[in-house]
Amino acid sequence: MATDQNKFQAIISHCKEYGFVFQSSEIYDGLSAVYDYGQNGAQLKKNIRDYWWKSMTQMHENIVGIDAAIFMHPTTWKASGHVDNFSDPMIDNKDSKKRYRVDHLIEGHAENLSEEAGKALLEQMDNLLKENDFAGLKKLIEDNKIACSVSKTVNWTDVRQFNLMFSTQLGSVTDEASEIYLRPETAQGIFVNFLNVQKTGRMKIPFGIAQTGKAFRNEIVARQFIFRMREFEQMEMQFFIRPGTQKEWYAYWKEERLKWHLSLGVSPESYRYHDHVKLAHYADAAVDIEYEFPIGFKEVEGIHSRTDFDLKSHQEYSKKKIQYFDTEINQNYIPYVIETSIGLDRMFLLTICAAYEEQDLTKDGKEDSRVVLKFPAKLAPVQLAIFPLTKKDGLPEIAKELMDSCKSAFYCFYEEKDAIGRRYRRQDAIGTPFCVTIDHQTKEDGTVTIRYRDNMEQERIPMDKVKELVLNKINE
Ligand code: GAP
Predict the structure, then answer these.
(1) Ligand 1 within 6 A of 229 CB?
(2) Distance from Cα 153 to the centre of ligand 1, integer Å
(3) Residues 123 and 240 both lie in one domain
(4) Same-domain check for residues 20 and 148
(5) Where does ATP bind (predicted)?
(6) In this structure, are 262 and 333 located in the same domain?
(7) Is there a domain that residue 274 lies in?
(8) Tens digit of each residue's pLDDT (9 = 90 or more) over 280-319
(9) Are 132 and 264 within one domain?
(10) Does residue 234 have a known ligand-binding role?
(11) SS (H, E, C) the chain
């Protein structure tokens, strides 16, 4: 059985082999930290996105969804603080010329120390980061003799800030006025539309606006597959509340979002909360929901109490009044905001890691094994596979009939090639929860064999019950 690091590598290979994730522009040797989703990956990603969207909007009467543009007026990013503050402290090794994010460099070193020493080092780092003490951070790296992984030397530059936003030019005139950014978070598209949605939707506080979409960050240390990408997708929700109620709503969303994760059947021990020590420029409290990937506990989602920072700042920069009249207390105010922000690609990686199993099925000296992805039925890229036992005797026609009756309700896959056992294995590898085989008995009594992915058990059921069975599992 694979070790954790090996397991991560095995998952990456599996993602490629079975059409989940490909390196972007692979025929040109790829583009660092940019990935494409293949036929199974795109569907899995869409199913995760749809589940989030439904949970946030359809299941909450006071949350609506929007779809704002990636390009926004450049002043947006001045107002949001991203032009001045969206940067990470970096350090370069003078010998290898390799650039590191300071926290990643120190964290990497801490992982190789004893638990106690590692904890002490991270505590020192957190304090220095909090104080923006760059000279102190450099000294910490030097004192601990933290070396570059390429040159193996400790010959470091000073620590400097590096802005993570990508910029481009709008229109054909290349002067500074036309410089715009690719959004580094989707949240600002929600803030600048606060009044539009509140007024046209006659929304009453507390209410939320949700959105999914691409975000772009020029990550310096982009590694670990789709965990840290330069182009990725976020699923964010800004919840607008009365000032003074932020503590209770923060606690509410912290719990509510963990419940959402657990609703997908992943064991609670695989999750933990991590409170932020160094808060982003907009937050007065922040917590990460972390998942235990094969590479360790890592952030999947953030819940941030963003105060009235964004709306207030957009009011100041746009010179447009962005306020809400609360009829219950007869007062005008700028709402406070609790944000929930989850990376879709990270949720995708989590879903694959939680589902991936290598099983040894050797029995009576006969070697056998399988790789199975135990996705929840609602997320599986294919939900039902339909196999005629043979290509003749009218079996394909019956199988196609079943396919036609089911395909508008969920994703079906039809295959008539190879032995049934091999067809099952291929479906296990892409996580199809149910396979149905149509054989000669079907012609006699209208029953089919349904085979369950997780325990590999099989039973005969009436063909006209298949659709209902699958639908019930998907809607569980
Ligand atoms: N609007 C708040 C915000 O963007 P964040 O913690 O910077 O907060 C939120 O990002 C989520 O977006 C993260 O929890 C993570 O899941 C995802 N994310 C951030 N940077 C990412 C990257 N480079 N690649 C993939 N996902 C990323």
Answers:
(1) yes
(2) 32
(3) no
(4) no
(5) 217-219, 227-232, 299-300, 343-346
(6) yes
(7) yes
(8) 778 899 999 999 999 999 999 999 999 999 999 999 999 9
(9) no
(10) yes
(11) CCCHHHHHHHHHHHHHHCCCEEECCHHHCCCCCCEEECHHHHHHHHHHHHHHHHHHHHCCCCEEECCCCCECCCHHHHHCCHHHHCEEEEEEECCCCCEEEHHHHHHHHHCCCCHHHHHHHHHHHHHHHHCCCHHHHHHHHHHCCCCCCCCCCCCECCCEEEECCCEEECCCCCCHHHEEEECCCCHHHHHCCHHHHHHHCCCCCCEEEEEEEEEECCCCCCCCHHHCCCEEEEEEEEEEECCCCHHHHHHHHHHHHHHHHHCCCCCHHHEEEEECCCCCCCCCEEEEEEEEECCEEEEEEEEEEEECHHHHHHHHHHCCCCCEEECCCCEEECCEEEEEEEEHHHHHHHHHHHHEEEEECCECCECCEEEEECCCCCCCCCCEEEEECCCCCCHHHHHHHHHHHHCCCCCEEECCCCCHHHHHHHHHHHCCCEEEEECHHHHHHCEEEEEECCCCCEEEEEHHHHHHHHHHHHCC
